[in-house]
């Protein structure tokens, strides 16, 4: 399942601070999320105020989504969190384009 959620176009209420809080490697609370580009039970791709964030794991589920405040909560077993910055953008884009074909 792949979904796309975008924050309201005004963007005024989106939290400009970005925090990632992990509890026991099975619950994530993320602030400063601009949009959820895609997700399934093994991977989430989020656009945050500090760049794209890929979350990989097992049995991942979106527990909470507040697009107005830019908050996402994810539960499941987390394997890794990776920020995709400008230096790795092309390499990451190739990876994701292969993944979502």
**Overall 3D shape:** globular
- The count of DSSP E runs of length 2 or more, i.e. the number of strands, is 7
Helix content: 10-25%
Indicate the CATH class. Mainly Beta
The rounded Rg comes to 13 Å
Can you write the helix and strand succession as a string? EEEEEEEH
The CATH architecture category equals: Sandwich
How are the strands of the biggest sheet laid out side by side? 1-4-5-6-7-3-2
Structural class per helix/strand content?
mainly beta
**Taking all residues together, what is the mean pLDDT?**
82
What does this structure look like?
With 101 residues, the chain is mainly β. The protein has a single domain (5-99), classed as Sandwich (Immunoglobulin-like). Helix content is 11%, strand content 53%. The chain has one helix and seven strands, in the order E-E-E-E-E-E-E-H. A hairpin with a 3-residue loop joins strand 2 and strand 3. The longest helix has 11 residues, at 89-99. It is globular and about 30 Å long. The two termini are 13 Å apart.
List keywords for this structure.
101 residues; mainly beta; Immunoglobulin-like; seven-stranded antiparallel beta sheet; 1 helix; 7 strands; 11% helix; 53% strand
Please sum up the structure shown.
The chain is mainly beta and 101 residues long.
Record the SSE blueprint.
Elements: E1 5-6, E2 20-23, E3 27-31, E4 33-39, E5 43-48, E6 51-66, E7 71-84, H1 89-99
Antiparallel strand pairs: 1-4, 2-3, 3-7, 4-5, 5-6, 6-7
């Amino acid at each position: 399942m792949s979904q796309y959620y975008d924050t309201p176009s005004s963007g005024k209420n989106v939290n400009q601070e970005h925090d990632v809080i992990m509890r026991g490697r099975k619950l994530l609370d993320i602030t400063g999320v601009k949009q959820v580009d895609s997700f399934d039970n093994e991977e989430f791709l989020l656009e945050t105020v500090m760049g794209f964030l890929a979350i990989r794991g097992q049995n991942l589920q979106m527990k909470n989504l507040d697009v107005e405040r830019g908050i996402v909560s994810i539960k499941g077993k987390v394997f890794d969190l990776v920020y995709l910055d400008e230096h790795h953008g092309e390499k990451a884009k190739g990876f994701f384009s292969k993944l979502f074909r």
